[in-house]
Amino acid sequence: MSNDVRELVAASSHVLAAAGHDDLIWGHSSARDPDGRGVWIKSAEWGLDEVTAARVQLVAPDGTVLSGDGVAHSEYPIHTEIMAARPDVGGVVHTHPPHAVALAAAGLPLRPVSHAANYFVPPDVPAFTDTADLILTRDLGRSVARTLGEARAVFLVNHGIVTVGATLQQATVAAVLLERACAQQLLTAAAGGEPSWSRPEESLSKREHIYHDRAVSAVWDHLVRRLPDPHPHTPTDTH
Fold this sequence. Notes:
Number of helices: 7
Order of helices and strands: HEEEEHEHEHEEHHH
Oligomer: single chain
Helix content: 40-55%
Number of strands: 8
Mean pLDDT: 95
Largest sheet: 8 strands, mixed
Strand order of the largest sheet: 4-3-2-1-5-8-7-6
Radius of gyration: 17 Å
Distance between the termini: 17 Å
């Protein structure tokens, strides 16, 4: 089981890198440990595209590395505290994608000007503004979890994003969709004119039609297939 989880985290990292979420050695995704010991997350000092199963660690809620080599990521509390607050969450992603960072820094709410945004809106994507510094303590991790609430994503303003899902596959797809949604909104704004977006009832309908579980699972499979070979083998079930 632990090897499957390690391979899943590696695959998520590669997908995120290919989707434009790489930021040198920063950014990470995690999967809940099936035995409740903490989270499986890549070790620090590796870029997302460099992650292998051997570079994935099991980190306890207090930051102790229970399995794996290397240095633990200092922002592990993002992952462990969200997992503690949200029993429904099996995967967490934290990255610094440029368009999402720009949109949040500009103080703009995400609008459903494209299909992708309907995965999140309504309600509005919450914004965490307690600090733009790293989330280094369990108290800050709990604050991020509170701001996230029951949402699928939260903007860490002037810092990055956090997305969640019942599985890491879903959380990874959410991160890809959020960056695409932000990029489309910024492109729309740059075009001038009078931008339009879906009404809440239409957004909810589109979410049901476009982003049902089977479609999200297929998106994950598509993203993995697009990775350059060799890529990590990983379970494909997102349910």
